[in-house]
Structure formats: structure tokens, C-alpha cells
Amino acid sequence: MGILHELDRLFSLRSGTLREVGIALLAYGVLEGVEAVGLWFTKRWAEYLTFLATTILLPLEVYEIVHRGTALKVIGFIINVAVVVYLLFAKRLFGLRGGGAVDEKLRARDMSWDAIERATPPALSLAG
């Protein structure tokens, strides 16, 4: 069975099915690209998009575990659920822990002159 069986199955798919899978993969690739650019520019919407992209595949993972479960699939599922929970609380999504307003306040505090002064070590005196 194994990988040879899967390759045989892949090459015996109808062209319509391959086209649908290709479109889905392309759409997911575009989603990930937009997400990456948004995160690079520290946009709040990108954090929600990351949450959505991670969460949307959880039902598929559950289906895979139920029908062809392996320890590796279960571990992957647990990691993805942990990522979803982390995103919810650490990024304050959907108003949790004060939401975006608290996040913006903390970001402004950490990007101020006071933050730079707190992070800068005191100057060394060369006069002995």
C-alpha cells in the first residue's frame, strides 16, 4: 500500500478533481501570502487571518484522525489547538484580555522614548 498506492491514486484522479484541488491550493497559498505580508507590517487584521487560517483546518484534522488516525496526526492536532488558544489570548483576539485597545496601548508604551531609556544601559564614565 503505502506511498506507491497514494501516487497511483493521485495519477488516476479526473482532471476536474485535479483542477479543483489546484484551485483550493492556490487560494490557500494566496491566503498565506496575504497573511505573511500583513504580519510583516504588524496589521491587526493579519492576526485574525492567522487565527482563521489555523482554525479552518481543524475539522479536517479531526476527520483525518477519526478515519486514519496516527500518533503524528494527533500530535499535530494538539499543536494546532495550542496555537489557536495562544492566538486568542496572547494577541487579545475577539476582545479577550482587553482586546485591541489594550494591545495598542502596550505597543505605544513599548515604542516610546521611555521604553528606549529603560532598555538602554547607563553610560559609562571615562573620567576616572
Explained architecture:
The chain is an all-alpha fold. The protein folds into 2 domains: 1-41; 42-119. It has 7 helices and no strands. Helix 2 (15-40) packs antiparallel against helix 3 and helix 3 (44-55) packs antiparallel against helix 5. The longest helix is centred in the N-terminal third of the chain and has 26 residues, at 15-40. It is elongated and about 80 Å long. The N and C termini lie far apart (79 Å).
Largest sheet: none
Order of helix and strand elements from N to C terminus: HHHHHHH
The number of strands is 0
Strand-pairing-aware structural class: mainly alpha
Tally of distinct domains: 2
Q: What would you report as the Rg, rounded to the nearest angstrom?
A: 23 Å
Rough shape?
A: elongated
Low-confidence stretches: none
Average pLDDT, to the nearest integer? 85
DSSP strand content = under 5%
Figure out the total of helices: 7
Q: Please give the share of residues in helix.
A: over 70%
Distance between the termini: 79 Å
Write a compact overview of the structure shown.
77% of the residues lie in helices and 0% in strands.
Task: Provide the descriptors you would attach to this structure in a database record.
128 residues; mainly alpha; 2 domains
